[in-house]
């Protein structure tokens, strides 16, 4: 029982809504569950009654053809329709409400499904990218946000269960959806369309914060990377260039401009690594760089062999990228 109920709360649960769309979905889901349970119980009881009666009165007179016709009309047509039609109508109307276009002046965030992580761009009013990050989507509480959902490989599906329903990310298409977070908090989003080996480890954090906190965060994301200060950080930056990291990763404000992997400009400010697979702590970071294939087999980042000193310097540099 406890394990059954544990699905009703938490940071990745459609039954613990923190946004108006998720609230509407939950409000439809509970009555559906209750009515479906009642119908199942009713059908089983009727079946039991029929079987026991048949066993007891083997010679009982069958129903007249009129009686059995009425039974079929009432129990086989009217009853099921009167249960399913209200649900179909409210599902249709909730679907329209939660997928209604956001207000014209809503902020736009572009999210691109990658193998197997999320590239995130914040756009200004004219659609220019002003900040880029990965695997951590921040939004201001109470403000509707427009999401442009894309994929450059296979079909993924964008889903933050506590906030909104799913929307597919389809190659060659741009799906638009919107959401509002009503309560501050950190929720977990998960790819909801099987997309290959690491589909299960294609997650992200959804951070709903006050408009002031969000404005500070976005302003930091717009800045180029912090310059290395200590000798070790300067050394680490050289390791980053020499070890080939810059071929795949961008650090804005430096010569690193690779595009195959996540933007690392403000890596140290993120809570997790590799699409919410491990916490962003120095030990995990060292483990990830040395052997990403162990943590996320077939991920598109190769393992890199570094001397312990080079690795330590690289870690100091990456940790300075607040
Ligand atoms: C061939 C391209 C490639 C190279 C070379 C590469 N990476 Fe990556 N890197 C990726 C990809 C792709 C991901 C995303 C993996 C995932 O989450 O599935 C990634 C993820 C990461 C992450 C996690 C970022 C986040 O926000 O989750 C870090 C940190 C990182 N790489 C650092 C490095 C460093 C340091 C080097 C050099 C030693 C390096 N990478 C070399 C492609 C590359
Ligand atoms: Cu996916």
Uncertain spans: none
Query: Class of the largest domain in CATH?
Result: Mainly Beta
* Largest sheet descriptor: 5 strands, mixed
Topology order in helix (H) and strand (E) letters: HHHEEEEEEEEEEHHHEEHHH
Strand order of the largest sheet: 3-2-1-5-8
Gross morphology is: elongated
What's the gyration radius in Å? 27 Å
Multimeric state: single chain
List the ions, cofactors and other small molecules found in this model. Answer: heme C, copper (II) ion
Q: How would you name the CATH homologous superfamily of the largest domain?
A: Cupredoxins -  blue copper proteins
Q: Report the count of strand segments.
A: 12
Question: How many individual domains?
Answer: 2
The helical percent reads: 25-40%
- The CATH architecture of the largest domain comes to Sandwich
Find the CATH topology of the largest domain.
Answer: Immunoglobulin-like
Mean pLDDT: 94
Distance between the termini: 44 Å
Structural class: alpha+beta
Q: Provide a count of the helices.
A: 9
Beta-strand proportion: 15-25%
């Amino acid at each position: 029982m406890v394990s059954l109920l544990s699905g009703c709360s938490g940071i990745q649960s459609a039954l613990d809504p923190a946004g108006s769309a998720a609230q509407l979905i939950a409000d439809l889901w509970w009555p559906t569950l209750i009515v479906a349970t009642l119908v199942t119980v009713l059908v089983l009881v009727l079946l039991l009654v029929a079987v026991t009666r048949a066993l007891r009165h083997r010679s009982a007179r069958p129903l007249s053809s009129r009686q059995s016709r009425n039974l079929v009309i009432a129990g086989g047509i009217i009853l099921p329709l009167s249960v399913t039609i209200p649900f179909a109508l409210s599902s249709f109307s909730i679907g329209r409400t939660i997928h209604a276009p956001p207000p014209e002046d809503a902020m736009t965030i572009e999210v691109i499904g990658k193998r197997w992580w999320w590239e995130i761009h914040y756009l200004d009013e004219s659609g220019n990218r002003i900040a880029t990050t990965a695997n951590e989507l921040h939004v201001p509480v109470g403000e509707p946000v427009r999401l442009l959902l894309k994929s450059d490989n296979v079909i993924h599906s964008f889903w933050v269960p506590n906030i909104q329903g799913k929307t597919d990310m389809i190659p060659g298409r741009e799906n638009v959806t919107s959401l509002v977070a009503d309560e501050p908090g950190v929720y977990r989003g998960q790819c909801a369309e099987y997309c290959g080996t690491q589909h299960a480890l294609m997650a992200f954090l959804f951070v709903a914060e006050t408009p002031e906190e969000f404005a500070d965060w976005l302003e930091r994301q717009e800045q180029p990377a912090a310059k290395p200060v200590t000798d070790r950080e300067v050394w680490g930056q050289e390791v980053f260039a020499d070890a080939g990291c810059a071929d795949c990763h961008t650090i804005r404000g430096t010569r690193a401009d690779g595009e195959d992997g996540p933007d690392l400009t403000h890596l140290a400010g993120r809570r997790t690594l590799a699409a919410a697979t491990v916490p962003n702590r120095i030990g995990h970071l060292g483990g990830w760089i040395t052997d990403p294939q162990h943590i996320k087999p077939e991920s598109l980042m190769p393992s890199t062999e570094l001397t312990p000193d080079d690795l330590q310097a690289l870690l100091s540099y990456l940790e300075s990228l607040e």
